[in-house]
Amino acid sequence: MDRLLVLVRHGQSDWNLKNLFTGWKNPDLTEQGVAEAHKAGEQLRDLKLSFDVAFTSDLSRAQKTLDIILEELGQTGLETFKDQALNERDYGDITGMNKDEAREKFGEEQVHIWRRSYDIPPPGGESLKMTAERVLPYYKSEILPRVLAGSRTIVAAHGNSLRSLIMDLEDLSPEEILKRELGTGTPIIYRLDENGGVVSVQDLAD
Asked: What is the pLDDT of residues 71-93, one digit of tens each?
């Protein structure tokens, strides 16, 4: 049985381009982001991959990325579940702030702590640890059972919600996952064993 799980971060958004903390806001994809989503679909098509079910967040940039990928695969209309559990990390009070301006206001070290520590959230927002605490239960209750049953599954989500998943899948430490960079619009292909362990992983950015 092929237990296939593909994770893909959304294509570049307008706020990515402007270097803003995005969180749960809903900026659109840039032209580059749309192109990245088309390329992701083409890569998956070239590998002759198709899907039985899709999951995405409640945010439009992830949903649009998924729609474009499925269009490239000729799978528009695929059964798709959308849930806030897969949303990007909530940046709270610094949402919408330019990252350079945030460094000027709060100091380089403080902003670095908010961005790169595992368990220290920005004011009013979430840490990566808090993000994982909503992503992983959803993964284990809704996504993983389908993968283990043989449903080829794609998840289109966000840098930090996917880091939470990757940390669990690859058994990484907080220090290791914080160093992991996820390219926009780049599929990562996992094949799992009957217990949900990773048999193989292929990052199409490589």
From this structure: 999 999 999 999 999 999 999 99
Domain assignment present for 185: yes
Domain span at 150: 4-89+128-203
Known binding residue 41? Answer is no
Q: Is 38 among the residues known to form the active site?
A: no
Domain assignment of residue 118, yes or no: no
Q: Quick check: helix, strand or coil at residue 1? A: coil
Catalytic residue among 10, 36, 126, 158: 10
| 3 annotated as belonging to a binding site for a ligand | no
DSSP lists the bridge partners of residue 192 as 198
Catalytic site residue 88?
yes
Number of domains in the chain: 1
pLDDT digits (tens, 9 = 90+) for 109-148: 999 899 888 999 999 999 999 999 999 999 999 999 999 9
184-195 pLDDT, tens digit per residue, is 999 999 999 999
Read off the pTM. 0.95
The CATH number of the domain holding residue 167 is 3.40.50.1240
Is 92 annotated to bind a ligand? Reply is: no
